[in-house]
Amino acid sequence: MPSADVERLHQALLARGETVAAAESLTAGLFCATLAEVPGASATLRGGVVVYATELKSVLAGVPGDLLAAHGPVSPETAGALAEGVRERCGSTWGIGLTGVAGPDPVDGHGPGRVYLGVSDGQRTDVVELDLPGERADVRTGAVTAAVTTLLERLR
């Protein structure tokens, strides 16, 4: 059963005639799967890509290779580029980019729980830095919750 915030997000997008797509790294599709729990989600969930491997961030989500080389796969710049790229490639109103470290081991100097969340509407891209507590599942779930909450705030 979807959470109240996920239901609210669906209703807010529906009321505006808008859609969302996501490029997901550490969440590996959990954001899209969470939104798809809402009956009628096909009216607002445009789709997404799982870009767990670094090279797929470029190939599937359009993150420039030079940006990845300069900043790495876990960075605010990459999260913003993921959001922008997936929005454009999926033809959605909104793009969500999620990258980070679920744990248990650090990645590129980032400890477990570090997440970068990008939200783009084509005019403005915001990136939120999160330090989420807990085990892998907690970090991944927390990242999805943050994405839902952040997009709801942008829609208000």
Report the average pLDDT across residues: 97
| Total beta strands | 5
Subunit organisation of the chains: single chain
Query: Which spans have pLDDT < 50 for at least 5 consecutive residues?
Result: none
Sheet/helix structural class: alpha/beta
Strand order of the largest sheet: 2-1-3-4-5
Largest sheet features: 5 strands, mixed
Helix content: 40-55%
Order of SSEs, N→C?
HEHEHHHEEEH
Descriptive notes:
This protein has 156 residues and is of the alpha/beta class. It has helices at 4-16, 30-35, 54-59, 65-71, 76-90, 136-155, and strands spanning 20-24, 45-50, 94-100, 114-120, 125-131. It has a five-stranded mixed beta sheet with strand order 2-1-3-4-5. The longest helix has 20 residues, at 136-155. 46% of the residues are buried. The mean pLDDT is 97.
